[in-house]
C-alpha cells in the first residue's frame, strides 16, 4: 500500500515473499497469534518487507483493521471462511480421488486458485496423503464392523 509496485511480476514476488515468511512462522510456532500474522503482512504492505523502526498512527490503525478483519474471517459463517474452507476441502478431495500425481495436483491447484492459494498445493498434497493413510487404517480396523452394521440394517 505504501510502495508503488511497477509490474505484476514484482507484485507476485512480494506476495511469494510474504507467503513464504508467513508459512515459516506458522510452521515453526505452535500458537501464532493474529498480531504476529498482521505484523508480517503489514511489514510487506508498508515497504516491501523491511520493517520500519517507528510505527505511525496510520500504520497502527491499519494493523488494527487488518487484525479485526482477520479475526472475523476465521469464524464459521463468515463468507471468506466459507469460501476458503470450501476451496481447501475441494483441493483435498481432488488429491484423495485423483491421486498425488499430476492429475490430482491439477485438481487441487484449480480449487486453491479460487482463493489465491495455489502456492499451498504442496502442503495440501502432504495433508491429503496423511488423510489417505488415516482412512486406510480406519477401513482396515472398522471395515468389518461397518459391513456387519449394514448387513443388520437390511
From TrEMBL:
Source taxon at top rank: Eukaryota
Biological processes per GO annotation: signal transduction
InterPro entries per UniProt: Tcp11 (IPR008862)
Pfam family, one: Tcp11
Family per record: Belongs to the TCP11 family.
Protein's name in the database: Uncharacterized protein
Organism of origin: Turnera subulata
Amino acid at each position: 500500500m505504501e510502495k508503488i509496485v511497477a509490474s505484476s511480476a514484482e507484485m507476485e514476488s512480494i506476495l511469494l515473499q510474504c507467503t513464504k515468511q508467513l508459512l515459516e512462522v506458522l510452521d515453526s510456532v505452535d500458537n501464532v497469534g493474529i498480531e504476529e500474522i498482521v505484523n508480517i503482512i503489514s511489514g510487506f504492505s508498508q515497504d516491501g518487507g523491511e520493517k520500519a523502526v517507528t510505527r505511525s498512527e496510520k500504520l497502527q490503525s491499519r494493523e488494527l483493521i487488518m487484525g479485526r478483519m482477520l479475526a472475523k474471517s476465521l469464524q464459521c459463517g463468515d463468507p471468506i471462511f466459507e469460501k476458503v474452507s470450501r476451496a481447501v476441502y475441494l483441493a483435498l478431495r481432488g488429491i484423495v480421488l485423483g491421486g498425488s500425481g499430476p492429475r490430482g495436483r491439477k485438481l487441487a491447484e484449480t480449487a486453491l486458485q479460487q482463493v489465491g492459494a495455489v502456492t499451498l498445493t504442496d502442503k495440501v498434497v502432504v495433508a491429503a496423503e496423511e488423510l489417505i493413510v488415516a482412512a486406510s487404517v480406519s477401513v482396515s480396523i472398522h471395515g468389518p464392523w461397518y459391513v456387519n452394521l449394514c448387513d443388520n440394517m437390511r
